[in-house]
Amino acid sequence: xxxxxxxxxxxxxxxxxxxxxxxxxxxxxxxxxxxxxxxxxxxxxxxxxxxxxxxxxxxxxxxxxxxxxxxxxxxxxxxxxxxxxxxxxxxxxxxxxxxxxxxxxxxxxxxxxxxxxxxxxxxxxxxxxxxxxxxxxxxxxxxxxxxxxxxxxxxxxxxxxxxxxxxxxxxxxxxxxxxxxxxxxxxxxxxxxxxxxxxxxxxxxxxxxxxxxxxxxxxxxxxxxxxxxxxxxxxxxxxxxxxxxxxxxxxxxxxxxxxxxxxxxxxxxxxxxxxxxxxxxxxxxxxxxxxxxxxxxxxxxxxxxxxxxxxxxxxxxxxxxxxxxxxxxxxxxxxxxxxxxxxxxxxxxxxxxxxxxxxxxxxxxxxxxxxxxxxxxxxxxxxxxxxxxxxxxxxxxxxxxxxxxxxxxxxxxxxxxxxxxxxxxxxxxxxxxxxxxxxxxxxxxxxxxxxxxxxxxxxxxxxxxxxxxxxxxxxxxxxxxxxx
Length: 484
Description:
61% of the residues lie in helices and 6% in strands. The chain is α/β, with parallel strands linked by helices. Among the domains are: 3-183, Rossmann fold (3-Layer(aba) Sandwich), CATH 3.40.50; 190-346, Tetracycline Repressor, domain 2. The chain has a six-stranded parallel beta sheet with strand order 3-2-1-4-5-6, sandwiched between helices. α12 (222-249) runs antiparallel to α17 and α18 (348-375) packs antiparallel against α19 (392-416). The termini are far apart. 39% of the residues are buried.
């Protein structure tokens, strides 16, 4: 009898958290509970004080995990299916609560038996090893794990298969002489994932804090320029904090999205625990920097931005129209905060232009999402949104009109605003109007063709034409300033 045939006679036992899936169901359910019941966030602590098993039982009963959308380890799952087809007995053995483990097993239709945590038994490490030895005998099973807690189980297994673990753990298992297959981590590095979670590319939006300084032509004031830079850093830290929290809120919805399912928390590249540690630290850093070096008016603006963003993340983004108005307000708040940071008066024309142009971009963002959904044959409201594909025409009409209104505001500013007092040749700024009109029209045309990224800001940052138009408009403004 060959070694492969002998191996098929041994049960293959598979761990769940961090092994079969790139996440931990205890952390996922705890995160969901706190987000759904923020005023009851103390309850998990009380349950944990009773026992780990009690904590898992209470959270499993109080939350819902969409097991069909969990980030499964594709390579391991494929191998398990091959083993199943070969006639091997496969067992799911996990420290997760049995309510969740049974749902995973029912979804995959792969396991002959499920061993999991019950109300009085936390099936982890030594407890799991003891249960498996009682069922299959010493060295009577092969085991697939991923963590140091699994060393106690591998010690009693015949063969130790390792999934997505560190090189040091793989070496430790190898030294034991039991190493079988090694399934590499099919996710980006932690550093790259954190960079993605912080969305550093989105910090470009925070350059809006410099707009009041430059429109007031105070860019030669070194002290004010330094304050604007500090404002940029504070806003970037605050924005990253909110992005991380927003991704934690949207984990389950993101897993149903064609692109967002690859985000760090949705894909399991980062654990939700890392997210819950990161966003408060970023928030604290932004607050300390603001209080230490920036004016009170900026601190108030940043606090309003933070509060409005949190309300948006938890509720407003689900309400049609109000969501895009909120996004436009959040962009405009960056300009308000920039004016507060450098102590310059706010321009009515600048605020009005900001509201219309960013409302157009927010509607374009929604339009792109709706078009992608309609092209995919979906109907009904999008997950976590207040829109359905049937709203495409209305969203397009509102968005295009808002973009044109921004061009009109720019034209009125040239004719009736403060331009004659700030520019030597304000009539030259008229050249910026057709350039902006072209950019808005082109962006919406690309949206209609399905060629627009679902975040227009990301599209603009990668689009050479957008950079060329921005450079042309900046050149026109500079020429209008120096022309005499």
